[in-house]
Each structure stands twice: as C-alpha cells, then as structure tokens.
Amino acid sequence: MGPGSGPACDIVLNTALTDEERRRFQDTATIRRLLAASRTIAVVGLSTDEQKPSQFVATYLRRHGYRIVPVTPRGGAMFGEPAWPDVASIPFPVDLVDVFRPAEECMAVTEQTIAARIPAIWYQLRIPAIAAAERAAAAGLAVVLDRCTKMEHGRWTGTLHWNGMNTEIISARKPRLGG
Amino acid sequence: MPHTRQFGFETRMLHAGHVPDPVVGARAVPIYQTTSYVFDDTDTAARLFELKEYGNIYTRIGNPTTAVLEERLASLENGTGALAVASGMAAQLVALMTFLDPGDEIVASAQLYGGTVTQFTHTFRKLGITVRFVNPAVLGEWEQAITPRTRALFGETIGNPRGAILDLEPLAALASRHGIPLVVDNTFATPWLCRPLDWGATIVIHSATKFIGGHGNSIGGAIVESGRFDWSTYPSIAAPSPSYHGLRFYETFGHYGYLMKARAETVRDTGACLSPTNAFLLLQGLETLSVRMERHVANARAVAEYLRDDPRVAWVEYAGLPDHPQHPLALKYLGGRPGAVFSFGLRVSGDARAAGRRFIEALQLFSHLANVGDVRSLVIHPASTTHQQLDDTELARSGVAPELIRVSVGLETLEDLLWDLDQALRATSS
Q1: pLDDT tops 90 at residue B198
Q2: DSSP string of B147-190, one letter each residue
Q3: Do A162 and B3 touch (CB under 8 A)?
C-alpha cells in the first residue's frame, strides 16, 4: 500500500517519542505491513460515543475493510460485533490490538495480548505506554506507539494529504495500484 | 533501504505534497479544476460530512491541487499541516477567527502592513475583538498589554514597510508563559530565510501572492500550524461544535484539530477558498523559491548599499546593512538576509510628498504598484497609497514617513536597477 516501493523518508512530526524510541516503535515498514496485512483489529477502549476519537478510528477502519472487534467492559455490540470485556475473552484469532486506554492500563492489555498469541499491538497517538511497548517488543510482538491507526492508513494511502496535512512522504516513484 | 532520511529544503520544495498520480503518472501537479466530487455511495458521503473519512466534498473546503500547495508549505515551514485560502488577508482572518470569540483580545505589533492594521482595527471591532498595538521592539510593551482576555500575540517576521525584525524567540517564550499562541506573518521572509515555528511560534501565515508565487499572477494565502500548541483552553477549538454533532476538534483530531476547525468551519463559512488554478500557479512559483530568494536578497543588499552611499538619500532601513540597529536580529533569524523589501527616505528640503511623487514618476524599470515579492522590481510611496487609510496617528505608529519609498527588489540585471534609481534621483532633485 502507499506510494512507491517503500519511501525512505523519515516521519518525525507529531510524536512525543525520542528519535531512538521512534526507530523502535514507529518503524514505517512495520506500520505499512500491519495496515496491509491485518484483517481483524480488536479496538480496546472503543467508546459508544460517536464523536469520540476511538469511534472515528473504528468507523474509518471498518469502511476500509477491516473487521472491528469492540473491547469494552460496558458490553453491548458495535459495528455488528458483540463487545468483549477484555482481550482475553475474545474467542477467535485477532491480527492486531489497537489500544485507546491510558498508559497505566496498557500493561494489562499487553499481557493479555501476549497470552492470546496476537502478533501485534498498537498504542494510539498520545498514549505514552513505553513500558508496555517494551514488554510487547520483548515478547516478539510487532509494536507501534504514539501513532494513530486512521492517520497512518490515510498517510500511506494518500488521503491524509487531502486535508493539507504534512505527511512527510517524499517520493518521485509512481505508486503501484493495489500495491 | 534505511527508513531514516530527512530530505532537504530544496528537495521538499519540489516534491513535498505530490507523489506522481498512480493512474496517469503525471509528473507536474495536475489542476483539478472542479467544484465538487462524486461520492462512492451514500454511506461514504455521510461519513465525509461527519469528518470521519478523509476525502473531497467541495472545493470551498478542499481540493487536490490546493492540497499539494498546502502540504508543501507545511513541509517547508516545518508545520503539521496547512490550509490555503483566497489571500493573505483571508489567511489572517481565518487564522484568528478560528480561535477567537467576541470579547477576546490580541496584542499585535504596531508595525504591520496597513491593510492588516485596518482589518484589526475596524473589521475585528465589529466582531467584538480588541487589538492592542505595541512597539514590537520593546518586549515589556508586549507583556504589559497582555490581559486575562488576551488570546494571541501577532507580528510580522519582517515588518511592512520599514523592515523591523520581530524578536521571535523571547516573544514565543512570552506567549508560551501565558498559554497563548504566537501568530507570525512570514510573508516577507519566506520559509527559505526564516521558519518561525522553529523559534516557537504556533501559527505562521502567508500572503502567498508575494515571494511564494513570486511572479505577480495570483492572489493567495496560507495558514501553517506547528501542531504543538495545547488548545484545550480555547473553547472554539476544544468545546463541542454545534455544527458537527458536538464534535470536539482538539480531542478528536489532536495536533491537527486547529487546522481541521479552520478548514471545516471557518473557511466553509466564510467561503474564502483558493482557486485550484491559482494554487497551481503558486506551486509553480514555490518550486523555485530558494533560487529566486538567493538572487532577491543579493540584489536587495546591493541596492540598499548603493542608496546608503548616495547623498540624495536621507536614510535606508534595511536590517541587512551592518549599521542597522536590528542587524543582530537579522543575523539571528534570517542569516543576515532580511528579504528584498525595504524602505528608504529621499533627502528633501521642501514638500516630501511631492518629491516622492516625482521620484516614482521618473522611474523606468521599477513598476509602480501595490504589491511586493514579484520577480520584477516594484516601488510604492505608502503615505499616498497602502497606508493612506490610516490617520496621522496610525501612520506615525506604523512608522511611515511622508518621504518614505518602499522598494521590492526583483531579479533584473543589478546594474540596470542602479541606473534606474540614479536617474530617478537625479530627476527628483532637479
């Protein structure tokens, strides 16, 4: 997905991470691979309020073909899927856990993700869950920290750019359709 | 391939915001001269209107050609994003209206473009917004003018018309201490010479009509934001929006909440959008910005030195000259090259206004018009044109003397420019 065969540009804006942390937890190849290969995404902390960021992200991702699995202790159902109280309760395979919870709750989510053998975890923009990210990386998971799934999808498919945002993508290569 | 490259200014000047089209492969930026965009389906249309989907609805709100200009300017200013609008004046209005409410105040430099002073003084008054003007060179004046209702500081990197240099770093620190944004008009400097966001400013605005377009063919403006300001205490950005089902722009969009608000509400409602063809023309100019600015500042310095050494000239206000009181600021923020627009005063014994008119009438190469930042050299006598709507007090506060001539030095052969000035000075004094 995205322009060219893999642009070499560095994405440095809009993050609280240090350069070293960015290299470990915002690797563009990892981000692009997760967005291209994931099919089922568990959204932890998905709000029922339609104007909340988690709803914006989940609505967007569902529209772009991902199966959204709501994870919230409130129960109920969203996007045609029953909500599960936590990651450990999900009875089927998940490709990616997308976390919308405060940093102090992220370690518990991470442990459940590791125990469920889910291969990737993504802590949303402005969630500085460094310790949880370290734990997930040590357990061999693919990890993204302090980035937004929706914005990254928009960045690499060229649509975030339509809002005049600085995507930091520089490439003279013609994107491959469907690539 | 290592994913670590941070590309240079000139590379981004040519490539930022535009990868070749995946179908056609067009290398130049395509002009999408369209008012509106066909929706995929009704669901998508609904999500677009709720801002839950990235996409194009109507060119008043966004356009793919304009988006290239926006992202490119954001990249060059090291901003999180940008919004292009109809003019520099529109950029200013949209940038400020997006976060101001009636009863709010801003503190602004008194040495601003005359049109800005008029907009702030008269149009903003109608909106219930008060602007306090201060001497930009005195930090204490800025500080004293700040009240609990102050919502922003505003200045020009290089003031119009006398070229005062804004001391960005302490001003940004002052704004930060008060939790308010520093808004900087960077038109005269361009991001090639100065990037105010790097010095702590929150918002940069441009009249893209000037050096960015550079060729005097299109009016346009732009707003760039740093993405680093905490807008949570600004109700216009942080509170639920009645026109978007209670959407909180800052909470939902984070570092681009301000720009989304500016686009989806302020420009939507004021209609101050840029034409796609003008966006294309401005982009054509932007692609050679660094090359043009190098020659602009070289010619400007040579012209300033020539005028300084000429006994028919009373004074030259160009902070690029080492004896100018603000030369240290020009060195700090602009590499000693404070643009190509500056003023000088004719040495006259009698009627200064009449002498100014004689000088302008005698010029053969400098175009007499109300613009700056063209590839051609331009000249104006502000007291009788751009600043004529200001009363005597406002005129004095803006630093405009009756003998003041403003030049925007272009890219003509330098010797030809000096010849023209010499013969016009001769005609003025005879």
Answers
A1: yes
A2: -TTEEEEEEESB-TTT-PBP-HHHHHHHHHHTT--EEEE-TTTH
A3: no
